[in-house]
Specification:
This protein is α+β, with helices and mostly antiparallel strands. Helices cover 15% and strands 31% of the residues. It contains seven helices and 30 strands. The chain has a nine-stranded mixed beta sheet with strand order 2-1-3-4-11-10-9-6-7, sandwiched between helices. The longest helix is centred in the N-terminal third of the chain and has 15 residues.
Amino acid sequence: MKNLLLPVLLVLFAQALPINAQMRILNFQGDNGYEHDSKDEANFLIESLGTKNGWEVVSTHDRSDLNAKMLSTMDVVVFNNNCGTEGAIFSRSQQRALQNFIRQGGGFVGVHCAGAIWNEEVEFQKWYEQLIGTRLVGHPEVQKATLTIENKDHIGTKHLPNKWQVKDEWHYFSSNPRGSVNVLISLEEDSYHAEANLKMGGDHPFTWYQYFDGGRSFFTSLGHTEEIYSDSNFQKLIEGGIVWASGNDSKENFSAHGLILDLDADSLVITNKKQEVLRWTNKISTFPAKHFEPNDYGVRLTKPGSGRPRIKKNVPQINNHNVVVFREDELINKKEDAFDYLIKGSGYTWFAVLRPYNTQNSNIKTEFGQGRLKDVNSFLGNLKNGGNYEGIWGSLEDNLTIWCGSRNGISFGRFDNNNPKVRGIRLNPDSYYIVAARMGAGVDTVDIELFVNEAEAIAQKPIPINSYSNSSKLAIGTERDATNHPGAESFDGEIARLLIYERPLNDAELRRTISYLSATYDIKE
């Protein structure tokens, strides 16, 4: 190692990014193949970033450290310029550990030769190349070239000039990842010398990010030379990539106090090969209601899977976040009593980031007659299946007027003074919205308020509290179990995020959470 470079790295960082200082990073350099002269500089960079930001960095070359126990303590794994060009690096248990880490919402950052891990078991190799976004194949000689910054809104690239000239190794790839990843930086192929077969034909992404298999993945093919690790632009690129992969990239986080449900389409969504959702897991792991799953049975489900929503990835309109698409589908949590107390006096606040579709005409025969129930298209609800209905509701009328409400079981619950329908504005099927509802805490009568895109209530109504209320299962995408009148009260549209608090947030918290969601998903008032 060229130790003269290390003092240069120490001048890294005059200002820290506004991020969570409690992160744990696994700085992994276990490999099997070519070893770069710059590996020590790469290692020192991550450790220096940890010192700067207050992260706990665990550095290792030992591949056995990539295990389930170690990964369960980490926020981000960095594959830090480590190659697998000559043989396999990982055992099957280590492969499964990394996959489970990502599928449980973990963050991944790959630097340079992390894209040249070539010799793993076949299925894992395919998965790993999807995690990276492609496969590094070869390169011309090291030389200067010009990079174009395609996206300066990302935390990793906002500091960069529009054009960035760098001396490095210019890989070409097995396939162009554009279309499956979000490109941040591309290489200008006319700015360096190489044979045509060592280039990508004009479109040459070089740094990107993606939401993948429940987690977050950031990759840059930069990082060959020792000198680049002393470049402040590169340092901040890697720093921002780690921050983004950790999920701590938002300018203003929402309050965690009282948060019992966080369904995030970017994370903890398990799908099959058809992109059908098999499970959507609550990020609040301490709450009893953990998993939301589809029904593979019921009146309308003539074949397994016909009631499953689908995942849609990297939606440009909402900063390339994922959404779950519902069309007369539902996901249900089977914990019968997990949400009972919300309408017994604790109150609640929920937020949904969604886009409605125009309501479909349903030809489904149900116990309530042919087709849909009028003005009941529910994206959130937990009602009692039998007797008087009890629970919370978020729904749309047939013309896409948004409404919310609670049902307390005092009377049947269609809509009356005991069971208010808090009606708001008509939504546009081409737009995404932040919809929120807040029910006050108390033992007598409280208010339910409805919000759309801002923290000023657009409607409110009082509701009497019933301390004997007994809500049933919570469903997303419709408010009823598919064994009853499936499709008759269903939401057609997309959901990117759903938050539920077990208390009414105060006005400042409400504003902060809506501001956070607005910035995260690029939703304007």
